[in-house]
Design brief:
With about 60 residues, this protein is mainly α. It is built from 2 helices and no strands.
Length: about 60
């Protein structure tokens, strides 16, 4: 009986592992390809940061 269970595990485990790998591969985030920015342009995600604090009333 134990041998039968081991045989079933040997037959089913690779299929389950392959299905899991295929599902994880198909649901992954798309790779960032060509963004379309010219040289020196700042990506939108970096441009949308909050404005830095500026000291007011300070004279040099």
């Amino acid at each position: 009986m134990l041998e039968l269970i081991a045989l079933l595990m040997l037959l089913i485990a690779p299929a389950a592992g392959g299905a899991l790998a295929a599902r994880l591969w198909s649901s992954r985030a798309p790779r960032a390809g060509h963004v379309g920015l010219a040289v020196g342009q700042i990506p939108v995600t970096l441009r949308r940061r909050r404005v830095m604090a500026v000291r007011r009333g300070v004279t040099a």
